[in-house]
Amino acid sequence: MNRRQFLLLATAGSFGAALGVSELMKFAAQPAPVSAKPTPTWLYSASDNPAGGHFLSKLDLSSGTVQSLPVGVRGHGVLPMSDGRVLMFGRRPAFACEVVNFDDASNLTLNAINGRHFAGHGCLSGRGDVLFTTENDYNGKRGVLGIRDSKSLQPVGEYTTYGLDPHDVQLLPDGKTLVVANGGIETHPDFGRRKLNLDTMQPSLVYLDSETGKKLDEYRLPDHQLSIRHLIVTPDGDVGVALQYEGDLYRKQPASLVAWQHAGGDLRLLAVDNPTVAQFNGYMADLAYDPQQRIAAVTSPRGNHVTFWDTDAGAFLAAIPLTEPSGLAFIPAQGFVVSGANGDLHRCQVTKHSTNATLLHKFTDTLWDNHLTIA
C-alpha cells in the first residue's frame, strides 16, 4: 500500500467510524443556511515598518483594514493557535518567538531552550494539543523538532529531524505524519547567518511519525546545493517544495527551484527552461495551491516574480513580474493573494492558459515579510 492509499483509507475510515452511515446521510442532506453572512477572511503576516519596527499584522482582506501589534523580534512564519492566539516565529537564527492575542493586544515571549534556536516555522498536531517547532541544535550539529504543550507552551521533548537546518514542518492530512524540510545548511550563532558547509550540504525531505518521532521516509534531490526550504501540503497529501540554490549562479543555473511529490511517489523537480529559471535569481519563498485547477504558486522575491506551476504536468506555467513578492495565500473563488515587501497586496487570477494580477491595496507603512497565513 502506498502513502496515498494509506491517507485516503485512514481519512475515510476515521470519518465513517465517527459518524456512521445514517449520520453521514443526515449530514449530507442538511441544506445550507440561506441567510448566513460571509465569514471575514483574515490574513496574518509578520511585517516591518519603514523605521525598522517589527510587527505581527492581521489584515481584513475585504476592507483592507490592518491591525498591527509591535513585537520584540523580526518575524517569519505565522501559526494561528487553537485557542485564538497567534504564534509568530522569529526569523532564523531566533532565540525567541512571540505569542500574540489580538483581542486584548497582548503578547508574550516564547524562548528557545538552552543550546537551541528557532528556525522560522512550526505546526500543530492533529488534535491541536501539541506544538512542533523547527530548531537547530547548533553545538550538536543536528536538526530537531521541539515539542511543546500548545496551551502552556512548555517544552515536553524533541525529535531529531535526521538532517541539518530544518526550516519548515507541516502535518499531512492523515493527522499523524509530519513532513520536514531539512535545508541541509550548517550554521552557528557565533557566525550569525554564515553558511558553514555549502560544499558538503545534504538537504532532505523527511517524514516522521508525529507520535513517536520514527522516520518513515526520506527523499533527496540530485543537486545537493538545492536547499529544501518551504513546504505546502495539499488536501490529497501531495507535498510542494520551494527551493533555494546555494551554488554559484554565475557558473550554473539550477535545473529548477520548485519540486513536487505526489502522495506515495518520488520527489521530482518541476520542469522549467534555463532562461526562465535564471529570472528567479536562485530563490523561492512562499507557496500556495489551487486544488481545483491543481496549480501551485510560488513567490520569488529576489527574482521579482510570482510563479505558477502545473502540478499534473510537472512543469512551469507562467510568471507575473511583481516587486519583491513575498507571502502567498489561495482563497477559493477569488484566486491567489500575494503580499509584497514594498507593502503591495495583489490578487492573481490564474488558469492554465491565462494570468492576471490586480492591485488590491497599497500600504506605505506595512512592509510584508515572506509568508501569508489565512485563518
UniProtKB/TrEMBL annotation:
<protein>
    <submittedName>
        <fullName>DUF1513 domain-containing protein</fullName>
    </submittedName>
</protein>
<dbReference type="InterPro" id="IPR008311">
    <property type="entry name" value="UCP028101"/>
</dbReference>
<dbReference type="InterPro" id="IPR011044">
    <property type="entry name" value="Quino_amine_DH_bsu"/>
</dbReference>
<dbReference type="Pfam" id="PF07433">
    <property type="entry name" value="DUF1513"/>
</dbReference>
<dbReference type="InterPro" id="IPR015943">
    <property type="entry name" value="WD40/YVTN_repeat-like_dom_sf"/>
</dbReference>
